[in-house]
């Protein structure tokens, strides 16, 4: 396996960096030290994710005290998805107690006359309205009643609340009332204040984000403290949803920022691979054991402030990643109409798919790939776990019987269904946003991605697939590439043609950068400035980079609007939010170029694949730059398997990435 080097930084070569990505089925490890890269996988331990990390460090033969550990955690995500956060009290203004339940009143199914009722994600008894109000300019029009806040401690004790979220109207302009309330709260509860979590307009999104931060904050804090105490690494950092890393001791207070902690690492690594290969336009496809994450990159991955998790909005800047419940562990079932279905329920790490031999009885997508031979019978999951093909065959015999299908036919049907789910997700981030997939290359990673990448590319009319080095632990690799950074924002409505606009913006940016310097003490920070702009009367905004001149800012916004919507509006433009990204410059991780070999590729074995006959096995470690091979073939490594079907040709790049291209057989 080629080494990973860091350019222009010899000081890094003596250090040991361990990237760890905790997934629903496997926990991935990428170790970088002076000798290069090592990859490793452990079955995840959902009941306590730290156990898999400890076990992986032991099995890698490492001393945790020597490590700079960068972690992608699913603790916050899982708590939100499974509704297993702590008992949380939401405090807002009197009369706004139902803001989180009412939401935006948007209808997901516009033409359904009898839509299914959505379950409330917060109970009315957990929402408290207090006196006091600020106006739209941040001036107090009603003070907080002291008697109201004096009774808060008793309410919290009686309700058994472990966390409190406070979201007052226009607190992003004046936080005085939120600070008053915070001072009256008991010291032993987790406190989340909206002006600290998201100092932006839109009460629903700000309130929901603040609530989620409180809902998962104690869990994240406890987990990270236990991890730091148990392992005692030199440094512990956590990847956050915007693609940067933050110190673990500050991550607990900003727990909601970890909602896309793991998938963000994959996009950070994908951007680096795209730059290296000169492929700026990428559709990323990350298929793990539990879920599939897809995104679109045009030079840089898109950011959004309109994400949702389990139907709950998060207004923080996050990488724009679309996730569906389709992975190697997705369970198969038969619906009421007698038709085969796949997911979203997953076998997870325990018991896992039937072929893991850990007590699973319902077949999953991994079992289907094993039955079809796309995972060869002699394969070892994570390089060491034997797979029970006979058990998978028996499970698909039972599954296929009511459908009138043999085990292989049933497995093939399952694969086709799963691939339709995944190609639908790729269309969401491309076709539905005005992009033609044929103009992009598909960058496939994740432990199961290589088994389906070529089929998905064909369905989308794409002709190129990139299977990068470390594809089976790619998100963990991205942990090593992330820079230390944090996002800061503040809303203030300013007409762009206001003569005071330049000075007002400079003051806002200076304030945000001072906040960043205070929150990231001791670091040599650089800053990126951006603004949310909209035409007057619009309910949405576009984010553009700050320009030296207001005329340049106006033109940047108009260009972005034409690109997004195809037209301009003859209306004045207004500034809604100023944004600052504070980051620490660091050298970029790069793969070195490898020496080529004239040696002809020798298959390491052969096995049968459904519909393709006997196909050769190629060991990825044997593939040197310049070597090429046409499908059908299986390319094997410890952390993943690549199915190269007929009609596709593979060539190894100088950095060890596999470049796949579809060709006309005729």
Tell me about this structure:
- The protein has 666 residues and is an alpha+beta fold.
- The strands form 11 sheets. Strands 14, 15, 16, 21, 26, 27, 35, 38 and 39 form a 9-stranded mixed β-sheet that branches. The chain has a 6-stranded mixed β-sheet with strand order 4-3-2-5-12-13. The protein has a 4-stranded parallel β-sheet with strand order 7-6-10-11.
- It is globular and about 80 Å long.
- Mean pLDDT is 89; it is low at 1-13.
- Pfam families: Hydant_A_N, Hydantoinase_A.
Which short descriptors sum up this protein?
666 residues; alpha+beta; six-stranded mixed beta sheet; globular; disordered N terminus; 5-oxoprolinase (ATP-hydrolyzing) activity; N-methylhydantoinase (ATP-hydrolyzing) activity; Oxoprolinase-like; hydrolase; ATPase_NBD
Average pLDDT rating? 89
User: Architecture of the domain at 85-213, CATH level 2?
Assistant: 3-Layer(aba) Sandwich
Radius of gyration: 26 Å
State the share of residues found in helices, binned by percent. Answer: 25-40%
Shape: globular
Q: Say what the CATH topology of the domain at 85-213 is.
A: Rossmann fold
**Assembly type of the shown chains?**
single chain
Number of strands: 39
**CATH class bucket of the domain at 85-213:** Alpha Beta
Tell me the distance between the termini. Answer: 36 Å
* Sheet with most strands: 9 strands, mixed
Low-confidence stretches: 1-13
The secondary structure category is alpha+beta
- Please report which band the strand proportion falls in: under 5%, 5-15%, 15-25%, 25-35%, 35-45% or over 45%: 25-35%
Count of alpha and pi helical runs: 17
């Amino acid at each position: 396996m080629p080494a990973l080097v860091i350019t222009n930084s010899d000081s890094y070569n003596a250090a040991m960096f361990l990237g760890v990505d905790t997934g629903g089925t496997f926990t991935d490890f990428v170790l970088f030290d002076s000798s290069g890269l090592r990859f490793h996988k452990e079955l995840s331990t959902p009941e306590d994710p730290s156990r898999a990390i400890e076990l992986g460090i032991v099995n890698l033969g490492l001393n945790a005290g020597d490590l700079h550990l960068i972690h992608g955690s699913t603790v916050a995500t899982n708590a939100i998805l499974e509704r297993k956060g702590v008992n949380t009290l939401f405090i807002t203004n009197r009369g706004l107690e139902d803001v989180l339940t009412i939401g935006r009143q948007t209808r997901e199914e516009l033409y359904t006359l009898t839509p299914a009722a959505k379950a409330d994600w917060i109970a009315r008894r957990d929402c408290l309205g207090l006196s006091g109000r600020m106006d739209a300019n941040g001036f107090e029009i009603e003070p907080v009643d002291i008697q109201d806040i004096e009774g808060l401690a008793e309410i919290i004790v009686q309700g058994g609340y472990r966390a409190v979220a406070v979201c007052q109207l226009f607190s992003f302009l004046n936080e005085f009332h939120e600070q008053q309330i915070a001072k009256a709260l008991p010291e032993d509860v987790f406190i989340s204040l909206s002006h600290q979590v998201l100092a932006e307009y839109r009460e629903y999104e700000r309130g929901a984000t603040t609530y989620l931060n409180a809902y998962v904050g104690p869990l994240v804090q406890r987990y990270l403290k236990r991890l730091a105490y148990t392992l005692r690494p030199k440094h512990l950092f956590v990847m956050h949803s915007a693609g940067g890393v933050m110190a673990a001791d500050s991550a607990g207070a900003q727990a909601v920022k970890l909602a896309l902690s793991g998938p963000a690492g994959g996009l950070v690594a994908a951007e680096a691979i795209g730059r290296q290969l000169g492929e700026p336009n990428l559709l990323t496809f990350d298929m793990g054991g539990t879920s599939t994450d897809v995104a679109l990159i045009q030079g840089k991955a898109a950011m959004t402030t309109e994400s949702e998790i389990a139907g709950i909005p998060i207004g923080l800047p996050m990488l724009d990643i679309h996730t569906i419940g389709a992975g190697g562990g997705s369970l198969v079932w038969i619906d009421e109409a007698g038709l085969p279905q796949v997911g979203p329920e997953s076998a997870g790490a325990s018991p896992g798919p039937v072929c893991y031999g850990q007590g699973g009885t319902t077949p999953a997508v991994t079992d289907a790939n094993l039955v079809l031979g796309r995972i060869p019978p002699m394969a070892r999951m994570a390089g060491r776990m034997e797979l029970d093909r006979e058990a998978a065959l028996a499970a698909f015999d039972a599954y296929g019987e009511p459908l009138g299908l043999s085990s292989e036919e049933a497995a093939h049907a399952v694969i086709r269904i799963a691939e339709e789910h995944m190609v639908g997700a790729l269309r969401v981030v491309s076709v539905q946003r005005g992009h033609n997939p044929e103009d992009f290359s598909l960058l496939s990673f994740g432990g199961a991605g290589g088994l389906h990448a070529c089929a998905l590319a064909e369905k989308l009319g794409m002709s190129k697939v990139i299977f990068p080095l470390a594809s089976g632990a790619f998100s963990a690799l991205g942990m090593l590439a992330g820079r230390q950074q944090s996002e800061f924002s503040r809303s203030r409505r300013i007409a762009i043609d206001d003569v005071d606009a330049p000075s007002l913006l400079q003051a806002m940016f200076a304030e945000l950068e001072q906040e960043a310097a205070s929150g990231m003490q001791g670091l040599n920070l650089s800053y990126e400035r951006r603004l949310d702009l909209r035409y007057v009367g619009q309910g949405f905004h576009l984010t553009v980079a700050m320009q030296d001149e207001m005329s340049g800012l106006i033109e940047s916004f108009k260009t972005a609007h034409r690109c997004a919507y195809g037209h301009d509006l003859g209306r004045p433009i207004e500034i809604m939010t100023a944004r600052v990204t504070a980051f620490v410059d660091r050298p970029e991780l790069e793969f070195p170029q490898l020496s080529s070999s004239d040696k002809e590729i020798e298959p390491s074995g052969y096995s049968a694949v459904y519909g393709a006959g006997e196909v050769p096995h190629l060991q990825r470690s044997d593939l040197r730059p310049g070597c090429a091979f046409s499908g059908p073939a299986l390319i094997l490594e410890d952390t993943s398997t690549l199915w190269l079907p007929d009609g596709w040709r593979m060539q190894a790049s100088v950095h060890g990435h596999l470049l796949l291209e579809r060709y006309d057989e005729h």
